């Protein structure tokens, strides 16, 4: 049993077959009938057992995640297979054979907690590494790029993707006007849209999906040298999808298809394994590419920057209680350890704010790090106190640093002894609300992706465009989308236009020019 599972066991109820008591420990002699004035009479307010039982039940639900509400998780282990000290001083990556407990939660992005598994959607792939230096969270997706470049657009994106407010339809991300309006107003979404319409968005199961950190992060070694990095997870079972026809049939017969598959595979000992890899460039090489490494709508071509594998992730234990573990887990891309730091990717920078903020309301106050699944396996001590649902009893009189009263108060640790020291990045420039011109190539990688597909995959993508855009009722938006597709590939735009009875745009001779602004004016 790994260190995290041992820790969780200390929070697991042992006496499951003990006497039935109230929450105050009072043994009860009856649990089938409420207390009444006479056998056929009215129920009495003094029935504390009835009141407690119903009150607790009334408050069993917590808000679902604002995105990624439907998810499923499992425990496992990360094993370092190649030490990476030339790039990072992170302890969990510095010794071959070192094992780190992990918890992974897979998710659908758009649908509600009770929606179906096998829908066309991006999948979340979030991993918590319980390292000896604190928790490191890799909060990624199964698609290597994102719809937007700047966090300020995230609420707009999600408002467009989620069911429309007047009728809460549809659960499906892309089958409605607001989705198509948003993506066609944002050329930066085009690359991700290609992945979204491809078979990648209908994975066969969770064990056969890739994971990507998406953003550029930073690695720092013991010599304080900085590298830019993209994180990858490659399933040893390979990447597999279903066809759209299969997806629709599966959803009808078994909305829990993905979670059932993962649960059953782990129960029968068929543990899924992913290779954990990195693409690394020295910080000085960041301008050597025809895209901006800070732009989350771009991937780093693996032919140019090969993925190097540093470890293996295996999922080998199901949870004991889905609510306590999978629902209450709180991931955050800002949970890093010494040797891992951030880049200036403007999407990542906004995420660094969003996760704790949302969890404060989802998990009821500032002490959710004390919930068993979220606790680090290393000691965690500081001068934070009180708050809703505080579990820790801090005996010290003082709760501030520095102080002259206590000799065992939590105090900062020097960098040489493992204290986190933010990378001393040089900064310059004016304070502006703009984006760099290097973010303005919206189509090159979208076209590259489309052209990289086999014929049958291209056909699936074209059919997905027709199916999903066919659900969009607004004629102008449909035309805007066809214009957008024309910037990716004329054949795609032509096919969509013909099938949907729209005008076929003429071929653009140099489609990958840097264009801006909105396509609706194109
Ligand atoms: C979940 C915000 C972009 C991956 C969430 C949640 C929020 C959020 C509020 C719910 C968290 C919770 O309730 O615990 C944002 C913002 C983004 C952004 C503001 C952009 C500015 C992304 C990107 C990725 C991503 C680019 C992938 C790289 C995830 C995943 C989850 C999640 C996997 C589910 C975590 C879980 O399983 O609990 N996001 N997100 N998000 N986000 Fe993001």
How is this structure best described in words?
The chain is of the alpha+beta class and 522 residues long. Helices cover 26% and strands 15% of the residues. It contains 13 helices and ten strands. Strands 1, 2, 3, 4, 5, 6, 7, 8, 9 and 10 form a ten-stranded antiparallel beta sheet that branches. The longest helix has 17 residues, at 346-362. The protein is globular and about 80 Å long. The relative contact order is 0.13. The model is unreliable at 515-522 (pLDDT under 50). The structure holds protoporphyrin IX containing FE (HEM).
Notable characteristics:
10 strands, single chain, 13 helices, alpha+beta, globular, binds protoporphyrin IX containing FE, disordered C terminus, 522 residues
Average pLDDT rating: 95
Strand content bin? 5-15%
Tally of DSSP β-strands: 10
Radius of gyration: 26 Å
Number of discrete helical segments: 13
Low-confidence stretches: 515-522
Distance between the termini: 60 Å
Task: Please tell me what the overall shape is.
Answer: globular
As a percent range, the share of helical residues equals 25-40%
Largest sheet: 10 strands, antiparallel
Q: What ligands are attached or bound here? A: protoporphyrin IX containing FE
Task: Output the structural class.
Answer: alpha+beta
Oligomer: single chain
Q: Note the run of SSEs as H and E.
A: HHEEEEHHHEEEHHEEHEHHHHH
Keywords: Heme, Hydrogen peroxide, Iron, Metal-binding, Oxidoreductase, Peroxidase
Protein name: Catalase
Cross-link (3'-histidyl-3-tyrosine (His-Tyr)): 332-355
Family: Belongs to the catalase family. HPII subfamily.
């Amino acid at each position: 049993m790994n260190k995290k599972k041992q820790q969780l066991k200390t929070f697991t109820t042992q006496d499951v077959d003990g006497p039935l008591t109230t929450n105050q420990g009072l043994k009860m002699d009856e649990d089938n009938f409420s207390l009444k004035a006479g056998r056929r009479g009215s129920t009495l307010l003094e029935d504390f057992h009835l009141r407690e039982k119903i009150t607790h039940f009334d408050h069993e639900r917590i808000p679902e995640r604002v995105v990624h509400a439907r998810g499923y998780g499992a425990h496992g282990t990360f094993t370092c297979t190649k030490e990476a000290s030339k790039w990072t001083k992170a302890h969990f990556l510095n010794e071959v054979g070192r094992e780190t407990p992990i918890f992974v939660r897979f998710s659908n992005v758009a649908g509600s907690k009770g929606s179906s598994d096998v829908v066309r959607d991006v999948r979340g792939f979030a991993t918590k590494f319980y390292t000896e230096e604190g928790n490191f969270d890799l909060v990624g997706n199964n698609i290597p790029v994102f719809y937007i470049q700047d966090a300020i657009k995230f609420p707009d994106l999600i408002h467009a993707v989620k069911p429309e407010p007047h009728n809460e339809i549809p659960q499906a991300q892309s089958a409605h006007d607001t989705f198509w309006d948003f993506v066609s107003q944002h050329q930066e979404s085009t690359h991700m849209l290609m992945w979204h319409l491809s078979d990648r968005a209908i994975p066969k199961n969770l064990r056969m999906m890739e994971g990507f950190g998406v953003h550029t992060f930073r690695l720092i070694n013991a010599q304080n040298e900085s590298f830019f990095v993209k994180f990858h997870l490659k399933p040893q079972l390979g990447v597999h999808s279903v066809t759209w026809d299969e997806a629709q049939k599966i959803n009808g017969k078994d909305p829990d298809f993905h979670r059932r598959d993962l649960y059953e595979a782990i129960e029968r000992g068929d543990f899924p394994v992913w290779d954990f890899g990195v693409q690394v460039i020295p910080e000085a090489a960041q301008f050597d590419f025809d895209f901006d490494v800070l732009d989350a709508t771009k991937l780093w071509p693996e032919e140019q920057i090969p993925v190097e594998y540093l470890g293996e992730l295996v999922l080998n234990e199901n949870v004991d209680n889905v609510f306590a573990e999978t629902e209450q887990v709180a991931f955050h891309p800002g949970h890093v350890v010494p040797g891992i730091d951030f880049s200036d990717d403007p999407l990542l920078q906004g995420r660094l704010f969003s996760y704790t903020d949302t969890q404060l309301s989802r998990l009821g106050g500032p002490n959710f790090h004390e919930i068993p699944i979220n606790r680090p396996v290393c000691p965690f001590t500081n001068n934070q106190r009180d708050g809703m649902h505080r579990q820790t009893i801090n005996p010290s009189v003082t709760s501030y640093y520095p102080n002259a009263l206590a000799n065992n108060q939590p105090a900062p640790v020097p960098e040489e002894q493992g204290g986190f020291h933010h990378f001393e990045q040089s900064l310059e420039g004016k304070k502006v609300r703009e984006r760099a011109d290097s973010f303005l190539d919206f189509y090159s990688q979208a076209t590259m992706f489309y052209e990289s597909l086999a014929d049958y995959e291209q056909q699936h993508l074209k059919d997905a465009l027709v199916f999903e855009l066919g659900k969009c009722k607004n004629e102008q938006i449909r035309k805007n989308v066809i214009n957008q597709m024309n910037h990716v590939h004329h054949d795609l735009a032509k096919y969509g236009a013909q099938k949907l009875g729209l005008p076929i745009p003429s071929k653009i001779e140099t489609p990958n020019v840097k264009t801006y602004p909105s396509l609706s004016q194109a």
